[in-house]
């Protein structure tokens, strides 16, 4: 049986399976097959729609197993407690988190926008000697974020704040060496907030974007135009396809180095 699903959780504490039930297939048969393959799965949830709203959660329907869908997920040596019915989380981005941490330098102060339950902040802080301010608007995600910081012993490095990036960024103006923007479908609405958060001399921004064949061109031009309107020059220094959703739809990351424009 060919079925596509994600497993979130761990062998020790149990996992949930999130499955796209193919049309014409019996959901119960699909669930039985997943439970047979993975005895540590405690709940099988079926995708009942796309990601929606500011919180980027999706409707999930329980088709087998326990109503209790809170799990502790493990990736690259750290743990993340979460309930996928209530918060955004994608286990598919584990590699992206490691690759992003590679780019960070010790000693930096980092602004992690759209922090969710904290996977990016925790992945970076585990490997680098940095301080990270993480902002998240979904109060349930913030609760998990706070707990995950404690579980991983990173309270001295990560500082979670509940709130809206557009209100909080102006209050933290000019402080950061690096800004991370992991909201592919909406980060372009917060470019101004990223730019004003950087230190006066400039810094790095990791900009996530979602689009078709010309996504890279579009994203670069959006970002550079906004930077120029602030008298800043944004140089694109890296690019990665994070994941592909359809033959021509990708989630991408572009790395920018931003500095004040030299006035001739
Ligand atoms: C695509 S999810 C990424 C979450 C997390 N970085 C991860 O990878 O698991 C985007 C997150 O941004 C949060 N969010 C959306 N708009 C926001 C805003 N204006 N201010 C702060 N957080 C926001 C959502 O609640 C959601 O948790």
UniProtKB/TrEMBL annotation:
PROSITE patterns: SAM_MT_TRM5_TYW2 (PS51684). One of its GO terms (cellular component) is cytoplasm. InterPro entries: MeTrfase_TRM5/TYW2, SAM-dependent_MTases_sf, TRM5-TYW2-like_MTfase, TRM5/TYW2-like_N. This is Class I SAM-dependent methyltransferase family protein. The keyword Cytoplasm applies. Residues 5-260 form the SAM-dependent methyltransferase TRM5/TYW2-type domain. Signal peptide: none annotated. Keywords: Cytoplasm, Methyltransferase, S-adenosyl-L-methionine, Transferase, tRNA processing. GO terms for biological process: tRNA N1-guanine methylation. GO terms for molecular function: tRNA methyltransferase activity. Pfam families: TRM5-TYW2_MTfase (PF02475), TYW2_N_2 (PF25133).
């Amino acid at each position: 049986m060919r079925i596509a699903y994600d497993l979130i959780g761990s062998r020790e504490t149990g996992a949930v399976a999130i499955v796209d039930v193919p049309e014409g297939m019996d959901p119960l048969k699909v669930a039985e097959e997943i439970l047979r393959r993975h005895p540590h799965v405690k709940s099988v949830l079926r995708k009942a729609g796309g990601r929606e709203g500011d919180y980027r959660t999706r409707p999930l329907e329980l088709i087998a197993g326990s109503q209790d869908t809170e799990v502790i997920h493990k990736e690259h040596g750290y743990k993340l407690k979460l309930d996928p019915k209530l918060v955004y989380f994608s286990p598919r981005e584990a590699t992206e988190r490691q690759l992003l941490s590679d780019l960070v330098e010790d000693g930096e102060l980092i602004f992690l926008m759209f922090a969710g339950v904290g996977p990016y902040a925790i992945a970076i802080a585990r490997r680098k000697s940095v301080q990270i301010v993480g902002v998240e608007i979904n109060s349930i995600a913030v609760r998990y974020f706070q707990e995950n910081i404690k579980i991983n012993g990173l309270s001295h490095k990560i500082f979670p704040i509940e709130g809206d990036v557009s209100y909080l960024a102006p209050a933290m103006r000019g402080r950061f060496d690096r800004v991370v923007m992991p909201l592919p479908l909406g980060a372009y609405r917060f470019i101004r907030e990223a730019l004003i958060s950087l230190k006066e001399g400039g810094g790095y921004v990791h900009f996530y974007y979602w689009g078709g064949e010309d996504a890279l061109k579009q994203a670069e031009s959006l970002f550079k135009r906004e930077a120029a309107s602030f008298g800043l020059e944004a140089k694109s220094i890296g690019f990665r396809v994070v994941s592909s959703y359809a033959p021509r739809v990708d989630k991408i990351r572009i790395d920018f180095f931003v500095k004040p424009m030299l006035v001739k």
